[in-house]
Amino acid sequence: MRTLDWIFAARPMLLVPVWTIYLVALHYHHSIAKETFDLLDVLSLSALSLAFAGAYYINQVYDIESDRLNNKVGFLPRGLIRPDAMLAAFVIVSLAGLCVAGGVSFWMLGLVAQIVVLSWTYSAPPVRFKDRPVSGPLANGWAVGLVTSLSVMPRQSLDRLGLLGWDNPVYFFLAVVAVTIITTIPDRDGDAATGKQTLAVRLGARWSLAVAAVCLGAAVAVAWRSGYPALVYAALFALVVSLFALAAPTTRLILLAAKVPIVVLTLMACAFYPFYLLFLVALILGTRIYYHKRFGIVYPTIA
Q1: List of residues 6+ apart from 291 with CB closer than 8 A
Q2: Above 60 in pLDDT, residue 129?
Q3: Which of 14, 159, 168, 175 has the maximal Cβ count within 10 Å?
Q4: From the centroid of its chain, how far is CA 57?
């Protein structure tokens, strides 16, 4: 059970957005570059996964009190893992991610290094981007949206620079910023009690949803201008749900608005790469079994 604690403390369900964005961006890149999924893509995705696992480890170390106040199931508040051990895990998996990225290319090493640096500045004092109204969503958008989608070109050159289509990273950046803003809304009471100044604490639920809706609207425009109808529909569907939540900001609708974008994009990724669907089914079943046996709760849920 201890080994499983470490695996699930890396929050594999929160790695799904990273994997999904990578695979969707990879599909569009491969369609332009006339390439197929190969070992280089596996290594790039592995480096990203290790770096983001480190980010989730260190985030929990500095979120102990707010997680307790927000009634989140935590490994640290329950004493299952010590904070110093989790900090050590952050260092180990981050270094592993950098090593894998360095083996791929200098370009990939630079991208993963950005994630590692943002992992620290996002959670640890004195910077703590996550506790700030603007830098928190922007840091998430940069790492999960922009850097992840740029990673589909692990060996960059001037000749290949235009193959990605620069609108793809912008689209994912805007989508992740929107989702990050929405996810702060259910936590605003606990965050305010611990001195955090997230956008939801500063503006409240409705204004935060309005800002998120603007970001999703911009994502729709970017995808439309780029000629990616599937991405248009994904962002548009998320925008509609966000507007419903804006009209009636119940906890259930807010949680649904936060999850809809990644669910829609995940379905797209599964359509592009059927093996990803099999992997996700196994992951969800395994996560459900683990959280039921370990904590007596049902997780994950749609809303």
Answers
A1: 8, 73, 297, 298, 299
A2: yes
A3: 175
A4: 14
